[in-house]
Design a protein that fits this description.
446 residues, five-stranded antiparallel beta sheet, alpha+beta
Length: 446
C-alpha cells in the first residue's frame, strides 16, 4: 500500500465522481490539477471487492461474517461537518499558495508544498504566463486523520490573461501542520491508513455534491462559450508543448555541456600544435534572421536580432554549436549554423588580437556594405515569399513583435490562411495581418 500515495487517491476520486455523476470536469479542472493534487478514489472497484469478500465469508463462516459486519458498522466513518472558511491558518496558506501559482513563484510554491518536481515547476511557470489572478477562493474543510490536519476542498475562480470571464475550478489538498505550527500541503504522505481515511471522507455526500456543483457550473459556462472552448483547447496544447520543449532543451544542454567539456580537453591537448600558426580575424555573415543572446544558451537574454546579410567579427567558435561575436561594443552569441565565413585576415604586425571595441570599429567600417547586403537579402527573401500563404494548424495568437510578450493583435483559428512574409530561424513567422506586419509562432502554421 506504500505506493498508493495521497496523490493517487486524489486522482482516483476525480474519476469516481465523473463516473457516478455523469459529469466531466474537462480541460480547466485538468489544467488546475496540473499543479496540485485532487482528492480521489476508485469506489466501484473497492465496493466490488468488499461485496465479493463478504459473500465468500458468508458462505464459509456465516457466524464470523455477522460478527465482522457488526464490527465494521461500529467503526464506520462518521459524517464529518464540511466547514466553509473555518480555519484562518488554512485560508492563509491557500491564499498564499494560489498567489504564488499566479505569479509563477516556484520557490514560494515549493516552500508550501512538500513535493514539487522539475516537471511541476515547468508547468507552474508556463501556466503563470496565462493566469492574471484568482480573485475568488472559498476553502471547505473537514478534519484530517491526524492532529492539526485538514482535508481542504478549494473552490476557485481564475482570471486568465487572454479571456475576460472568470472560470470556476475545484482542487483538493491534504494539509498538515509542522512542528513550528505552520500549515503546509502534504503530497508525500504514503501511509495506507491516512489514504483510506481521505478516501472515505472524500466520498461523503456533501463533498461529492460540492464537486458536482462546480462541475455543472463549469460545463454550463463551457457549453455557452465557443471562445472559451477554443482558448482552453489551445492553452492545454501550448503548455504541454512548452513543458516538453523545456525538458528536451534541458537534456540537450546537459549533453552539450558534456560535449563542450570533452572538446575543451581535446583543445588543451592540441594547444602546443597551434602555437606557431599566425592568428587571423574572421568575419562572419548571418544567413537567416536569428537572435543574438547574452550567452551560449537558447534561454539566455536576447541582446538583439541579426538580419540576413549582417556581418560580425568572430571572437570564438565554441564546441557546443555557438559562436561568440563582437556586437554593439560588447559581445553576443549566435548559433553557428546560422553564420557563414566571409573572410579571414591576418592580425596586424603588432601580433595582438583585436579587443572587442577594436573589432566593433573594424566591423563598422563595412557597415554600409553589410546593411546594403542585409537589405538586399531580406528583400530577396520577402520577394521569394511574395504571394505565398501559410495555413494555421493550431489556434494561435498573432503578435505585433516576434516575442511571446509582444502585443497581442488577435487570435487566428485552425484552417485560416495568412499572407507569408518570411519564416525566421528564431521560431517565428512574419506575416501580414489586417494590413500590417505581424508574427505567429512557426510551430502553429505550415
Amino acid at each position: 500500500m506504500n505506493n498508493n500515495s495521497i496523490k493517487d487517491k486524489m486522482e482516483d476520486l476525480k474519476e469516481w465522481v465523473s463516473d457516478h455523476a455523469k459529469i466531466v470536469m474537462p480541460v480547466i479542472l485538468l489544467i488546475c490539477v496540473l499543479i496540485t493534487v485532487a482528492v480521489a478514489v476508485n469506489a466501484n472497484k473497492k465496493m466490488a471487492q468488499e461485496v465479493e469478500a463478504r459473500t465468500a465469508e458468508a458462505v464459509v463462516t456465516p457466524e464470523v461474517n455477522q460478527a465482522q459486519e457488526s464490527t465494521q458498522a461500529q467503526e464506520e466513518m462518521p459524517q464529518l461537518v464540511l466547514e466553509e472558511n473555518a480555519y484562518p491558518q488554512v485560508n492563509s496558506l491557500i491564499s498564499s499558495y494560489y498567489g504564488a501559482l499566479a505569479e509563477g513563484d516556484i520557490e514560494a510554491v515549493a516552500s508550501m508544498n512538500n513535493m514539487v518536481d522539475e516537471t511541476a515547476r515547468l508547468r507552474i511557470q508556463e501556466m503563470s504566463k496565462y493566469i492574471d489572478s484568482y480573485p475568488e477562493l472559498n476553502v471547505y474543510t473537514k478534519t484530517g486523520p491526524v492532529e492539526n490536519s485538514y482535508l481542504a476542498y478549494v473552490y476557485s475562480k481564475v482570471k486568465f490573461t487572454e479571456y475576460d470571464e472568470l472560470v470556476p475550478g475545484m482542487q483538493a489538498f491534504y494539509i498538515c501542520t509542522d512542528e513550528n505550527g505552520a500549515c503546509y500541503i502534504n503530497e508525500k504522505e504514503d501511509n495506507s491508513e491516512v489514504a483510506d481515511y481521505i478516501r472515505e471522507v472524500s466520498l461523503q455526500d456533501d463533498v461529492v455534491d460540492l464537486n458536482n456543483q462546480v462541475a455543472v457550473e463549469y460545463n454550463e459556462q463551457l457549453e455557452g462559450d465557443d471562445e472559451l472552448k477554443a482558448f482552453l483547447a489551445d492553452l492545454e496544447k501550448r503548455i504541454d508543448a512548452s513543458v516538453g520543449e523545456a525538458l528536451a532543451k534541458a537534456e540537450l544542454e546537459a549533453q552539450a555541456a558534456a560535449e563542450a567539456e570533452a572538446a575543451l580537453a581535446a583543445a588543451d591537448s592540441t594547444e602546443e600544435e597551434t602555437e606557431g600558426q599566425e592568428p587571423v580575424i574572421k568575419k562572419v555573415r548571418a544567413t537567416d534572421v536569428v537572435n543574438i543572446r547574452s550567452s551560449d544558451s537558447e534561454t539566455a537574454d536576447k541582446k538583439g536580432k541579426a538580419q540576413i546579410g549582417d556581418e560580425f567579427t568572430l571572437l570564438e567558435e565554441k564546441g557546443n554549436g555557438w559562436s561568440r561575436i563582437s556586437f554593439e561594443g560588447s559581445e553576443g552569441y549566435i548559433k553557428s549554423e546560422f553564420l557563414q565565413t566571409v573572410s579571414e585576415e591576418p592580425v596586424d604586425a603588432g601580433g595582438e588580437a583585436p579587443d572587442i571595441e577594436t573589432a566593433s570599429a573594424a566591423a563598422s567600417d563595412e557597415g554600409e556594405t553589410s546593411e546594403a547586403a542585409g537589405d538586399t537579402a531580406g528583400q530577396a527573401a520577402a520577394s521569394a515569399a511574395g504571394g505565398q500563404t501559410v495555413t494555421v494548424i493550431e489556434n494561435v495568437n498573432v503578435r505585433k513583435s516576434a516575442s511571446e510578450n509582444g502585443e497581442r493583435l488577435g487570435l487566428v483559428y485552425i484552417g485560416e490562411k495568412l499572407e507569408l512574409v518570411m519564416k525566421q530561424a528564431d521560431g517565428w513567422t512574419k506575416i501580414k495581418y489586417k494590413g500590417e506586419t505581424a508574427y505567429v509562432k512557426s510551430d502553429y502554421v505550415e
